[in-house]
Amino acid sequence: MAVGLQFTWIGLLSLLLTSCEVQPQKPQHPGEILTLRVEIHGDYADRLAQQHQTPVIRFWMQPVVGSIYGRPAEGRFADARVEGSGKFGVSLDGIESALARAARIADSRSLTYFPAETRIARLAAVSSLWSDPDRNYDTTLRDARSGQLLILIYVDRPCQIRGALGDNSVDLSLERRGLYWLEMTHTSTRKAEAARLVTVPPEVIVRLDPL
Fold first, then answer.
1. CA atoms 94, 31, 80, 39: torsion sign
2. pTM of the model
3. What's the chain's average pLDDT?
4. Measured between alpha carbons, how far is 54 from 82 in angstroms, rounded to an integer?
5. pLDDT of amino acid 188
6. Is residue 148 part of a domain?
7. b vs e for 134-164, b when ≥16 Cβ sit within 10 Å of the residue's Cβ?
8. Is residue 77 part of a domain?
9. Would you say residue 108 lies in a domain?
10. Cα–Cα distance between 118 and 137 in angstroms, integer?
């Protein structure tokens, strides 16, 4: 299906103005493009299929600052218009630069960071119907191969992160500043396992579940 892209890096300027004390270094992924594909789940997807309708989705990104879980902060830094289950690409350079500017000193009750001065930000994916902005979705990123939940974080220095994220235990050693993909693994019996680092996936599913 045709995919109409309209990226507006409107969040970058506001993040620069509010975080001028943080000077991000050169991104670790020069020229790399993250390939995303939209999938709608649930009863709403079934109704669309029965009615032969092609939904138009608005997809954007925001930072979660100082934590891995939490509410997104102000400042959208990508905006895409996607028809149906379309594919589109986003610059990893742009994601890293935006998260670097937004990163704040880690503050979490469930995780411990070494050193304590580590700054962190997570990518939050958000979406809604283009024709009905008030209709939001539970939007998650998933590995196209395994279907497991993916979380993309940025840290500003080498660090260790220990503790728990939901049911997943965490014991990570990050050897440099930059972006890291975490896979939150569940077995076929829905038993949670340890969060683990994974390489950049060749394709990531943007899974939309109607709220």
1. negative
2. 0.80
3. 81
4. 10
5. 52
6. yes
7. eeebebbbbbeeeeebbbbbbbbeebebeee
8. yes
9. yes
10. 31
Range of the domain at 54: 10-210
Tokens linked to 122: 């997570």
Encoded tokens for 174: 């990050």
pLDDT at residue 94 above 90?
yes
| pLDDT tens per residue, range 45-67 | 777 677 777 888 889 999 999 99
**Distance of alpha carbon 83 from alpha carbon 78, whole angstroms:** 16
Q: 1 in a domain, yes or no? A: no
Pairing of strands 33-40, 204-210: parallel
Closest C-alpha to 139, from 63, 69, 206: 206
pLDDT of residue 23: 41
**Structural domains of the chain, count:** 1
Higher-scoring residue by pLDDT: 5, 68: 68
Task: Residue 41: name the closest of 151, 131, 133, 127 by CA.
Answer: 127
